[in-house]
């Protein structure tokens, strides 16, 4: 929303990619494209010195990340006053079997985003976020649903985190042995890994005449999840 | 190794599943089966009050989790003295489109494991761990590789974390609308999500006569990653 193509997140000791720094990227375009291609993230936060790593669904709006949960959840209560957090998204793209142990690896794409997570208290802001929580994944869907009740809105906590720093790290080179090791007589390969959609399973209690809306066409059997989510994101947030 | 089928991890305020507690499991069998079915985890740890959520490959031996990285990495330096950490593994199994926003959900299987991560300093222990880092995924493979050099062993840091507490959380019920909402005229479905193997890509510089070993047969195109990894684990750790 506020970004330009050339914008980047600031780099400091928190988010600088130190190991294999050639794999690090900080520009909004790379970071946001990865964030918009996934539904599942892991959020790290701290309670009384104990780190927690919690999986959750999330989405992005401009340079803000959102996730939600029960108003009763331990994580969300802890974040209500603006706690430091780190939200990470990772795609595993392959397993790499090299000719020595050291060069065994994996292709992957990941983003670590750092900021302070805060509970959304404003009711209008929260209701808008709850719409996007569904519509970011399934464009326009909220308008077709049974409206949320006050009780449901109350029971759902939504967290917003402005991305203060972020880094993307991408490994995509596949098999890469040391040059002298290609003479070593063993087998080596790259095994691609893909996260794909299965055949959608319609509810077996659909009312007569209810059919699958065209807005879900992108969620088709065999499609890569990251592609379907990226496409859905672009429909819901055409400005990026 | 030391477990019995009936063994469970202790439960306290750190790992008790509070939200949707009916989804929580603490027994070794459930926790370990999930841990052994994945390659990628996210580890949460803290440096100077800042939480980090780092993706990495990992494996289990008994009630100990292992992961590795560069000896120069920030995370591993920080963990050398036994830092609290939380290692989480998540499988996303579906997206659930219900008849109201509140019942939109996802099927998933996740484990959060808590402990204190420590660098392995003992050389023999470290060398054994480096063998299992490969062989846990590809049984017997290390014996077929160009042996590791002292330099490579030195450059690789291995972390061990005894699981002090753990919880598994599984949602597998798919679409579940409120009973009265089935009368609401909108479309609803479950979209399965699967992480699968693609067609293995042999190195294009294989020496003449080198063929794919039978031990890799389980890594075949279209196979579920979690099934292939579970099977490989059982070959490398027949005692569980």
Automatic annotation (TrEMBL), chains A, B:
The lineage of its organism: Bacteria, Pseudomonadati, Pseudomonadota, Alphaproteobacteria, Hyphomicrobiales. This is Pyridoxamine 5'-phosphate oxidase family protein. InterPro entries: Pyridox_Oxase-rel, Split_barrel_FMN-bd. It holds the Pfam family Pyridox_ox_2. It comes from Bradyrhizobium aeschynomenes.
């Amino acid at each position: 929303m506020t970004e330009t193509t050339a914008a980047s997140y600031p780099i400091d000791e928190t988010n600088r990619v130190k190991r294999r720094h050639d794999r690090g990227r900080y520009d909004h375009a790379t970071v946001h494209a990865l964030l918009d291609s996934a539904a599942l993230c892991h959020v790290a936060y701290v309670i009384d010195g104990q780190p927690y790593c919690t999986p959750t669904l999330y989405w992005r709006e401009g340079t803000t990340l959102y996730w939600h949960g029960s108003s009763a959840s331990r994580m969300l209560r802890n974040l209500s006053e603006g706690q430091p957090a780190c939200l990470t998204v990772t795609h595993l793209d392959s397993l790499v079997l090299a000719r020595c142990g050291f060069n065994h690896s994996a292709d992957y794409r990941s983003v670590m985003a750092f900021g302070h997570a805060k509970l959304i208290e404003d009711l209008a802001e929260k209701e808008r976020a709850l719409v996007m929580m569904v519509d970011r994944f399934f464009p326009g869907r909220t308008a077709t649903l049974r409206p949320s009740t006050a009780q449901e809105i109350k029971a759902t906590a939504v967290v917003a985190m402005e991305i203060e720093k972020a880094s993307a790290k991408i490994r995509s080179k596949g098999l890469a042995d040391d040059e002298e090791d290609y003479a070593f007589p063993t087998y080596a390969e790259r095994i691609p890994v893909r996260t794909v959609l299965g055949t959608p399973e319609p509810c077996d209690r659909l009312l007569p005449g209810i059919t699958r809306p065209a807005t879900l066409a992108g969620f088709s059997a065999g499609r890569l999840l990251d592609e379907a989510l990226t496409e859905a994101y672009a429909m819901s947030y055409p400005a990026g």
